[in-house]
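User: Show me a protein chain along with its predicted structure.
Assistant: Here is one chain, sequence first, then C-alpha cells.
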Amino acid sequence: MSAIREAGATMAPDARAALISAFARRLHAFQAQARHFEVVTTVHNAADLLRPQLAPATPPPRQHGPRTLIVLDSSFNPPTKAHMRMATAAVQELASGDGGSRRGGLRVLLLLAVNNADKGAKPAAFEHRLVMMRQFAVDMHDELRGEETGGVVEKQGNTTTNTESEEGGKSSSSTPPIDIGLTTYPFFHEKSASIASSAFYNSAVTSESGGGTSTSPIPGDADSATAPEQVFLAGYDTLIRIFNPKYYSPPIPADAGVTTDTADRRKTPMQTALDPFLTRARLRVTMRTDDGWGGRDEQEQHVRALAEGGELEQVGGRREWARRIDLVEGGGEVVSSTLARRAAKEGKWEVLGTLVSQRVGEYVRSERLYTEDA
C-alpha cells in the first residue's frame, strides 16, 4: 500500500463534515455507555487521510504488544508545536536510548479527557478537537520521518512504504502507531489505571464491550505485569499539580463498611493514588523556563529536592517517586494553545503557522475555530 499526498492539501468540506460527524458519533456512544476509557481510532501514516471513513482503532496483537506506551494527555485546544516537540522527542529518545525501547516496541496515545478537572469544553467542541488530534497525528508521522509537515511524502519513489508493525495493522516502518483515545477521568493516576486495565493494551484483560474500554470504574493493578510501561508527557506546571494534595480525596473511613487492607489504611490519600501510578508509569517532564516557574537550575534543583529532601513526605508523598521523573529540555520560543487561539481569532494565519502543525492550522482556518473566543 502506498500513498502520495500533495503539499498543503486541505480536506474538502464534505470530508471535514463526515469526519466531524464520525467523531461526534463515537463521542456520543462513549458518553452514553458510561465508559471510562476507549481508543476511538488509530493513525498509522499519512495514507489514513485518504480513507473515506474514520480509520478503526487497531489494538496490538496479543502476543506482541508494545513495551512502552507514550501518553500525551492534553485538552488539544488546539494541539500545538509544543505538543509536537514533546511527543516526537519522546519517541526518538525512547527508540534509541540505552535503556529505551526500539521503535517497534513503542506506541503513542493522544488522550482527551471529556471531563477535565480544571478545563471546560470551550471554545472548541470535543469533536473538533478529535479531528485536530487526527490531523496532528498525521503531521507527527511526517515529523518523525524527518520531513516538513505538509510537504510531499518522498519515500522510495514519492511513496510511503508500510509494513506490518509489531503492534498490528499497517504502519510506517519508521513511526509507531498513534492512537486517539477518550477518558472521563480528570487525573493522571485514574487515566493510567484505566489504560492499564483496558483490553486494548493489556492481553491479560478481557472486555465484553471490546475496544479500549475499562472493565471497572477504578481498575486494580493485578494486570500491570502484562501491560506496557506508560510514559506520561507533562509540562513542569503539571508536575507541580500532580504533587498537590488538594487533588486527592481522603481515604475511606474504617467504619464505612468497606473492607480495606491495614497497610492501605496507613497510606495517605496521595500515596493511595500515586503508589500504583508511579509503579506502572514514568513522568517525562518538559521544563518551562519562560512563565514564572523559575529557570532550568531552579527546576532541576526542585526535582533533586523531591528525591533527596523531605518535600514529598511533608505533603503525604514518597521521595522514591522522584526516581520516576525524567526532566527534559523544553523548546526555545513560547508556544501555547492560548497564543494559537488568539492568532486564529485575529486572523493572523502566518502567526498561527508558527504555533501549530500544518494540517491542524488548515483545519482551524477552514472551520473558523476560535473566531469568537481566544
